[in-house]
Write a structure and sequence with these properties.
Elements lengths: L1 E4 L3 H7 L10 E3 L3 E6 L2 E6 L5 E5 L8 H6 L3 E3 L4 H15 L8 E5 L23 H15 L5 E6 L7 H13 L4 E7 L6 H9 L3 E8 L3 H8 L8 H14 L3 E8 L4 H15 L5 E7 L13 H17 L24 E4 L4 E3 L11 E2 L7 H6 L3 E2 L16 E2 L11 H32 L1
Parallel strand pairs: 7-8, 7-13, 8-9, 9-10, 10-11, 11-12
Antiparallel strand pairs: 1-5, 2-6, 3-4, 4-5, 13-14, 14-15, 16-17
Helix pairs in contact: 4-5, 9-10, 10-12
């Protein structure tokens, strides 16, 4: 067995090597994910974060001693989930408490220039952030950040570019105060024109943007239903993506899909990937629409949905443009911003919340006063982990389902587990390919 990615340092120090008790029967760990590769079988331990290669011709029995030491084989009656919980708890106690906020999500407005049929924000009050509130937000960010490290700003909405003066005000104040920051954004891309791109890079330190596309030109223009006067919004957004990439901005294109537009998404993948193929800072992924306030066109069965999802995903992969993320290199202690004390979310009126997707009635304070509703803050840290599938789920060590999260309202579905497993296996193979390339380069240089 060959180690190709060492265990996470913090986990390795806590659990150390497992000792072999030969009198006990052993089994493959529930937290082990397997994936085929050209040289054999990859084994990834979702708790330790280590990846191992079991070469072709080498069986699990042949590698028994090494697999036991690395926790990939465990005693038959070993309660792995309890052990994972204990390690997470100890790691959370060891991890330094966040004294300052380093990640700020700022909703410049809850208004938008698009009228997407599926928008989960449909029906909410449309509020822009005033210049006065933007100034107060910038002052609040300066106070909360502590100045000990660069800040990450994330612009959100509504459509964040529907209120650019708020972004100008906040970033201008931070620069004047000598605060170092970088920013990212979720946008429909309509206002990200070449002039705005230039300002975004120079003044907003914009490093990345996610732009949603709902189909080819005709479908896109109908779904977005922009209120702006524009003959062809689809063409405009594609040109804006070109400008952003030319300026060095990372562009992630999200393709929202339900049963109604699935076939059209296949066509737009060809258009987008043909146009932007070779752009190292452009990647694409498919996202399944979920039903919140708006009705979406559900697939007839989960299997139909999965088949369609993976067909589109594989198509993007074949173009070499699929968005991927690296394997976890830290023990997972937070699900997202909502349960992370280093993150803050500022609404257009200066109210504070824990989740930028869940704003109504969840405010726990504001930027103008120091009072906080800590009970509401802590409620976002409560984890749902009593699904029947948790007992033997490989993703348990890296899965933190928050009880208050609307995304988990339908429980732990088979489709979500299948998608996550496939993505993990894809990440494992990418790491293997990188490792194998390094070996080949080393051998070629000798």
């Amino acid at each position: 067995m060959i180690e190709i990615l060492a265990p996470i340092d913090s986990v390795a120090k806590l659990c150390g090597p497992q000792k072999d008790t030969s009198i006990l029967p052993y089994r493959l760990s529930h937290h082990c994910v397997k994936a085929d590769c050209p040289d054999g079988t990859l084994l990834y331990h979702t708790l330790t974060g280590a990846v191992y290669l079991l070469p072709t011709g080498e069986s699990i029995e042949m590698a028994r001693d090494a697999l036991i030491e690395k926790w990939l084989l465990v005693p038959q009656d070993f309660d792995e989930n309890t052990y994972a919980d204990q390690l997470r708890h100890v790691a959370s106690l060891i991890k330094p408490t966040a004294k300052h906020k380093h990640h700020f999500t700022i909703l410049t407005t809850t208004d938008c220039n698009a009228r997407c049929r599926y928008c989960y924000e449909m029906g909410r009050q449309r509020i822009p952030m005033s210049v006065e509130t933007a100034n107060a937000a910038a002052q609040y960010i300066c106070r909360q950040s502590g100045g000990d490290r660069p800040l990450n700003l994330f612009w959100f909405g509504g459509e964040p570019l529907y209120n650019m003066p708020a972004i100008d005000t906040i970033t201008g104040h931070l620069r004047n105060c000598g605060v170092t920051f970088r920013s990212t954004m979720t946008s429909n891309g309509f206002y990200l024109t070449p002039d705005v791109v230039k300002k975004a890079v120079e003044n907003w330190a914009l490093a990345g943007v996610q732009i949603t596309v709902d189909g080819t030109e005709k479908i896109y223009n109908r779904v977005k239903a922009y209120i702006d006067d524009c003959d062809n919004p689809f063409a405009r957004v594609m040109d804006n993506i070109t400008a952003a990439l030319a300026a060095g901005i990372q562009v992630t294109i999200r393709l929202n899909m339900d049963r109604q537009n699935a076939e059209d998404i296949s066509l737009v993948i060809d258009q987008i990937c043909t146009r932007f193929q070779g752009q190292k800072k452009c990647n694409v992924y498919v996202a399944l629409l979920k039903s919140y306030k708006a009705k979406i066109n559900e697939f007839n069965t989960e299997q139909e949905m999965l088949d369609c999802f993976f067909r589109l995903r594989d198509k993007i992969k074949n173009y070499g443009m699929l968005r991927t993320v690296p394997l976890k290199r830290e023990i997972v202690l937070n699900r997202c911003k909502a349960d992370n004390d280093a993150c803050e979310i500022i609404l257009p009126d200066g109210q504070l919340e824990r989740c930028h997707h869940y704003t109504e009635g969840e405010q726990y304070g504001d930027i103008f006063h120091s009072d906080r509703d800590w009970q509401r803050v802590n409620a976002w840290k409560e984890i749902q982990k009593d699904y029947p599938t948790c007992a033997t789920c490989a993703m348990y060590p890296i899965c933190l389902n928050l009880k208050k999260c609307d995304w988990n309202k339908d429980g732990c579905t088979q489709s979500s587990r299948v998608i996550w497993l496939r993505e993990l296996q894809e990440q494992m193979r990418i790491h293997y390919e990188s490792w194998a390339e390094g070996i080949r380069e080393k051998q070629g240089g000798e």
